[in-house]
TrEMBL record:
<dbReference type="InterPro" id="IPR044861">
    <property type="entry name" value="IPNS-like_FE2OG_OXY"/>
</dbReference>
<keyword id="KW-0479">Metal-binding</keyword>
<dbReference type="InterPro" id="IPR026992">
    <property type="entry name" value="DIOX_N"/>
</dbReference>
<dbReference type="InterPro" id="IPR027443">
    <property type="entry name" value="IPNS-like_sf"/>
</dbReference>
<dbReference type="InterPro" id="IPR005123">
    <property type="entry name" value="Oxoglu/Fe-dep_dioxygenase_dom"/>
</dbReference>
<protein>
    <submittedName>
        <fullName>Validamycin A dioxygenase</fullName>
        <ecNumber>1.14.11.52</ecNumber>
    </submittedName>
</protein>
<dbReference type="Pfam" id="PF03171">
    <property type="entry name" value="2OG-FeII_Oxy"/>
</dbReference>
<comment type="similarity">
    <text>Belongs to the iron/ascorbate-dependent oxidoreductase family.</text>
</comment>
<keyword id="KW-0408">Iron</keyword>
<keyword id="KW-0223">Dioxygenase</keyword>
<keyword id="KW-0560">Oxidoreductase</keyword>
<dbReference type="GO" id="GO:0051213">
    <property type="term" value="F:dioxygenase activity"/>
</dbReference>
<dbReference type="GO" id="GO:0046872">
    <property type="term" value="F:metal ion binding"/>
</dbReference>
<dbReference type="Pfam" id="PF14226">
    <property type="entry name" value="DIOX_N"/>
</dbReference>
Length: 324
């Protein structure tokens, strides 16, 4: 049942790979469906993303946060939500699971999908230039290669999710023609064990799916229906996947967007690299009638994904509040 879990399952995604048998695909889809209907979280094994690329991305993440303040400030986050976010610059006031009053104890570099300057929508909300450290040119190369691989993984997962909801395999593709992509390169310093202080305060993600690569420090916890916080420690060669709010709404509540948090009490820095695979800004998100059972009605009003996303960013990030 929804929310009744004491651990997070490992789902073998090899059945979603090109060339997999229908039997293998059916098994992967069924396991994914069970995990996301129960806990909204899963460890993904056999995901197809090269581990050497994952390792290089982690190395680049560590190198970014070893830069001095002047170099970081040169990449200060711009109006397009790309660049460096210093410590304590985001507070999750839109959290539906806790009253959050203190900012997250983390710093990060936010990278989004690349937008050519001659693209017709360049300059629109969230459609602008990324920022990378001048002294580390390999960061850009690695981040864009990593995002390309993660996008392919996101596409495979979206196909599996459509089938899990009884829809055609390519149903979500129409809404991801220009996907909204975020790669957040995070550093959580060691923090005090204060009740109201978090690396990331209790929250649910507000997008489609999150694909997280952790280092070996730990600190991620997921809340079950009883209110227990279940550790989600790193497992080698896996990503942690979770459902975001927009997918929970799109699925009419079949998939659950589960509260989670980060507390880094390890006495050393924690580095993580969540990748957020979200629909096009212009995508109209509404529950597909083909998915509804007799007598079932949509739980959400249709919404343009871009409007939904901007409302949340504007409330949660200090730089956007100051600009408004």
């Amino acid at each position: 049942m929804k929310g009744e879990f004491d651990n997070i399952p490992i789902v073998d995604l090899s059945g979603l790979a090109d060339g997999a048998t229908e039997a293998a695909r059916s098994e992967s889809v069924a396991d994914l469906k069970t995990a996301l209907e129960t806990s909204g979280f899963a460890y993904l094994s056999n995901h197809g993303v090269p581990e050497d690329l994952v390792d290089r991305m982690r190395e680049m993440n560590v190198a970014i946060h070893a830069l001095d303040d002047k170099e970081k400030q040169a990449m200060r986050i711009n109006e397009f939500h790309r660049g460096y976010m210093p410590m304590s610059s985001s507070t999750i006031v839109t959290s539906s699971v806790a009253k959050v009053t203190r900012p997250n104890q983390s710093e990060s570099l936010m990278v989004m999908h690349e937008i050519p300057e001659d693209a017709p929508h360049f300059g629109e909300p969230l459609q602008g230039p990324n920022q990378f450290p001048e002294r580390l040119p390999e960061v850009r190369e690695t981040a864009l290669a990593y995002m390309a691989e993660m996008t392919v993984l996101g596409e495979r997962i979206a196909g599996g999710l459509a089938e899990a909801l009884g829809l055609p395999r390519d149903w979500f593709a129409q809404h991801f023609q220009d996907p909204t992509l975020f790669l957040r390169l995070l550093h959580y310093p060691e923090q005090a064990n204060e009740e109201e202080l978090f690396g990331s305060a209790p929250h649910t993600d507000y997008g489609f799916v999150t694909l997280l690569k952790q280092d070996n420090v730990g600190g991620l916890e997921v809340r079950n229906k009883r209110g227990d916080w279940i550790p989600a420690p790193p497992i080698e060669n896996t990503f942690v996947m979770n459902v975001g709010d927009i997918l929970a709404k799109w699925s009419n509540g079949r998939f659950v967007s589960t509260p989670h948090r980060v507390k880094n009490l390890s006495r050393r820095g924690r580095y993580s690299q969540p990748f957020f695979y979200d629909p096009s800004m212009r995508a109209l998100v509404e529950c597909p009638p083909a998915m509804l059972e007799a007598g079932e009605t949509p739980q959400m009003e249709p919404v343009l994904y871009g409007d939904y996303l901007l409302e949340r960013l504007n409330k949660n990030y200090d730089y956007r509040k100051k600009a408004s």
